[in-house]
Amino acid sequence: AQTVTQSQPEMSVQEAETVTLSCTYDTSESNYYLFWYKQPPSRQMILVIRQEAYKQQNATENRFSVNFQKAAKSFSLKISDSQLGDTAMYFCAFMKHGQKDDKIIFGKGTRLHILP
Amino acid sequence: DAGITQSPRHKVTETGTPVTLRCHQTENHRYMYWYRQDPGHGLRLIHYSYGVKDTDKGEVSDGYSVSRSKTEDFLLTLESATSSQTSVYFCAISGLAGKFLSYEQYFGPGTRLTVT
Q1: Helix, strand and coil in chain A, % to nearest 5
Q2: What is the mean pLDDT of residues B66-70?
Q3: C-alpha to C-alpha distance for A7 and A58, rounded to whole angstroms
Q4: Whole-angstrom Cα distance, residue B74 to residue B34?
Q5: Rounded to the nearest 5 degrees, what angle is found at the Cα of A29, between the Cα atoms of B74 and A67?
Q6: What is the mean pLDDT of residues A50-68?
Q7: Mutation test of the interface with chain B: which of A35, A42, A43, choosing the one with the most B Cβ atoms within 10 A?
Q8: Which residues of chain B neighbour A47 with C-beta distances below 8 Å?
Q9: What is residue B104's DSSP assignment?
Q10: Measured between beta carbons, which residues in chain B are less than 8 angstroms from residue A103?
Q11: How far apart are CA B70 and CA B78, in angstroms?
């Protein structure tokens, strides 16, 4: 069974700094997707970034980028020029692809505080 | 934003009473999911549906049942609510993009359920 581990329960950084959130996963699949979701205090789950396992190039979305190391099964999220609005819970997630029961497996989350 | 609504948004109920939560989508997506979110556990899948009248269990399905009689609605029922079912419940959808399954999930706003 697939597992997703986020080793940092909570982090704090100053506004405008760069922060990296860690995520590791365990799978025997070769075709899968990885995601980072953000959950601000409003509780809404928001997709931040996605990565297809077959792509070697790391995904980027504006200030958000990932470091995808397939062999090491590592998928970290880097937030550049952090803003107060980035304060949220961040969830790393894994999804294998190609089956009718495609389900997402979530890590337990990292609570990120951006300090003014 | 994906058109997903959940009702009610908040509910307080007594132990032993039946409770039904509703998820409604306007996207005509094939797949629908129910998760619960608890501190320290991230999001855990309760049940999911891969089509009308087609459902399957997730990792924490005990004490819950679901029904999907039409594409747009996915109901989650607690037959006899217990205090351990106090949680925040999220619905999510995913669907087709061309001939491929769209691999990301979009989430509803959540329902906070308290069982006293």
Answers
A1: 5, 55, 45
A2: 96
A3: 21
A4: 9
A5: 95
A6: 93
A7: A43
A8: 104-106
A9: -
A10: 33, 45, 48, 58
A11: 20
